[in-house]
């Protein structure tokens, strides 16, 4: 009996540095487990930001963490930044300490209401669960800002400007931001939505250009098979490769401004640059900005808060939101 129990706890799949899946069904998340509660952050570093957790859909346990600058006056209407955290679709959450810290700073510096989405994660919930949750969170946020009585949320109703909506995310969250934006291009029923800008920070994207070797492509393929739950999943999947022939035309992207940030030592950087170039040559009529930080690693701005390079990237993000 003991040997049988031990066998069921053997590792079935290991994707470092993220998770181990055991034959028993147990999931071990190796990183991204440090959390912080919603709170009032009145430190001088952020200028004062209140946060709270709100459940959107009890059936799927979908929730968001809202951030509101405490300096917002009674009649102030602020940009809405809908943020999707990274973590390979597998780890991290809206309550992760590093995301809580970052969203506090972003809300304060940009003078925005931030909506950090706690979407369902792989492997318990394979894609498209994260995309569906993120879409539902966007629709909820816009509805609440428009005063929809079926979606009451006073912070968004009083302070959210539904004509100034930004989608933002890092890594897998940047992938989500792109895909949610493309869904908005063809969707109906979102009242008065206007996506002013999309911010893709070190995006988890792939394409057929700039070959990076069979080992790396095999790694991405294995990850994508796990994320989708499809053994036949391919790296030219439109969700992963928005520049592939199978993907909707980038010219449909429903915004006039995009910011793509890449880090020079990140193996995903060439894919972010390729996305930016493809967008510019797609016939899309907007303005795309590329922020390329040499010598830095993937999501350095989250892992090294307060450094000069992190502050410079935050300044670019804040300027992008202010300039819309």
From TrEMBL:
InterPro entries: AB_hydrolase_3, AB_hydrolase_fold, Carboxylest/Gibb_receptor, Lipase_GDXG_HIS_AS, Lipase_GDXG_put_SER_AS. Belongs to the 'GDXG' lipolytic enzyme family. GO terms for molecular function: hydrolase activity. Keywords: Hydrolase. It comes from the Eukaryota. It comes from Sorghum bicolor. The keyword NAD does not apply. The active site is at 171. Residues 81-301 form the Alpha/beta hydrolase fold-3 domain. Gene3D superfamilies: alpha/beta hydrolase (3.40.50.1820). This is Alpha/beta hydrolase fold-3 domain-containing protein.
């Amino acid at each position: 009996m003991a040997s049988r129990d031990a066998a069921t706890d053997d590792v079935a799949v290991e994707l470092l540095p993220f998770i181990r899946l055991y034959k028993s069904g147990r999931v071990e998340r190796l990183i991204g487990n440090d959390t912080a509660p919603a709170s009032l952050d009145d430190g001088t570093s952020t200028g004062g930001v209140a946060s709270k957790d709100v459940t959107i859909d009890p059936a799927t346990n979908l929730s968001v963490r809202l951030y509101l600058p405490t300096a917002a006056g009674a009649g102030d209407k602020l940009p809405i930044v809908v943020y999707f955290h990274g973590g390979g679709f597998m780890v991290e959450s809206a309550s992760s300490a590093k995301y809580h810290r970052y969203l506090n700073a972003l809300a304060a510096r940009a003078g925005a209401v931030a909506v950090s989405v706690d979407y369902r994660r792989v492997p318990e919930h394979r894609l498209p669960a994260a995309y569906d949750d993120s879409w539902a969170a966007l629709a909820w946020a816009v509805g609440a800002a428009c005063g929809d009585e079926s979606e009451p949320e006073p912070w968004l109703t009083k302070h959210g400007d539904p004509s100034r909506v930004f989608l933002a995310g890092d890594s897998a969250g940047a992938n989500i931001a792109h895909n949610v934006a493309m869904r908005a291009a063809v969707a109906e029923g979102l009242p008065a939505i206007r996506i002013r800008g999309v911010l893709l920070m070190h995006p988890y994207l792939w394409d057929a250009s700039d070959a990076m070797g069979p080992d790396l492509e095999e790694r991405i393929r294995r990850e994508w098979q796990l994320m989708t739950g499809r053994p036949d999943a391919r790296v030219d999947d439109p969700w992963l490769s928005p520049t592939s022939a199978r993907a909707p035309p980038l010219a449909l992207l429903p915004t006039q401004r995009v910011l793509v940030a890449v880090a020079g030592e990140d193996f995903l950087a060439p894919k972010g640059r390729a996305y930016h170039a493809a967008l510019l040559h797609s016939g899309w009529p907007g303005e795309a900005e590329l922020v390329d930080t040499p010598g830095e690693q993937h999501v350095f701005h989250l892992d090294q808060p307060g450094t000069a390079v992190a502050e410079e990237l935050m300044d670019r993000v804040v300027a992008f939101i202010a300039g819309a």
